[in-house]
Amino acid sequence: MSSVYLSRPWDVHRLPSAAGKSFLVTGGNAGIGYFVAEQLAGTGAVVVLGSRDRERASAAMASIRSRVPCAQLRHLQLDLADLASVRTVTDELGLDRLDAVVHNAGVALDDPPRRTTKDGHELMFGINHLGHVALTRGLAPLLSAAPAARIVTVGSFAARSERLDPEDLQSVRDYRPKRAYGRSKLAQMSFAFELDRRLRARSSTVLSLVAHPGGALDSLTPPRAGVHATALGTRLRGVPARLLLQGKDCGAWPIVRAVLDPQVRGGQLWGPKAFGLRGTPRLESVRAHMTDPALAARLWDASCDGAGVEPHLALL
Fold first, then answer.
1. Which of 20, 55, 65, 131 has its CA 20 to 30 A from that of 73?
2. What is the model's pLDDT at position 316?
3. Gyration radius of the chain over CA positions
4. pLDDT tens across 255-264, in order?
5. How far apart are CA 40 and CA 259, in angstroms?
6. Buried-exposed string 236-256: b where 16+ CB fall within 10 A, e elsewhere
């Protein structure tokens, strides 16, 4: 790649070619994940939408193709709440390598009671975090086969103010939905940083990093047929928020850069430029509570145990 390209500022509207590469986006049928998939599809890569709902995935692919006629899209049946099914996805992908996976899919609950996955894990911790840990293990051979694969974990602003309780990671003793969500995202982010530290210690070619969308609202998100529609009144009420926040199309920008930019490095955190809430992507500093070594080690062991995978994740 020429030095001219490397010195050019990143342009969210002129993405580099990724022809010949393949990317998996979990939850790629809606929200942030949809716009990540749409933007990556324009680079010439094969983009796989991981979703448990085949009809919604088909609608998302139709919408992407209406905007990117030559898009190379596939659907992967993926239910992160069912760990046994997650561990078998490698065979279903039918690829010989995977250049990046975007751990985007997730669930946020607003009200009690506490709910659990098929495997008995608290729902948000189980889907948002443990499901992706199991997926990382399942994808390990394909990621290792790529020249420089990336595991991009989608973080959240909600994780900034939360702290993990290693004695109650799944909110058994004290369940509050919004806090449980924030902690599930913090667990994802902390695990991703610890994963990269371990990958670097092994001299692995695989990178692990985190990107977050900032303040991304449905009311500021452009419509997509069959995927997202917002009533005119809702859009108008959301206009004042545009001063500080943005739509999910823009929220996808830091994640897409984390996947594509050749200058990105493992262990980094990418987010929107303006106060971490809106704007073009920029590199952010990682907060200390997200990389505490002792806590990261305990989270690692508990996560691998909960996901039913070996602690080394078989990443070479």
1. 131
2. 47
3. 18
4. 999 999 999 9
5. 9
6. eebeeeeeebbbbbbbbbbbb
Phi and psi for 207 in degrees, rounded to 5?
-110, 145
Please list, in sequence order, all residues whose beta carbon lies within 8 angstroms of the beta carbon of residue 246, skipping any fewer than 6 positions away: 214, 215, 216, 217, 220, 272, 277, 278, 279
Q: How many CA atoms lie within 13 A of 164 on its CB side?
A: 27
Is the entire prediction scored with pTM above 0.85? Answer: yes
CA dihedral 188, 140, 298, 191 (to 10 degrees): -20
* The residue count for the chain: 316
Q: What is the pLDDT of residue 229?
A: 86
What integer pLDDT is reported at residue 278 of this predicted model? Answer: 97
**Residue 181 is among the residues annotated as catalytic for this protein:** yes
Closest CA to 39 of 55, 23, 58: 23
CA distance 190 to 46: 29
For tokens 């209406």, what's the residue? 66
Q: Give the per-residue pLDDT at 2.
A: 39
Among 76, 74, 47, 30, CA closest to 248: 30
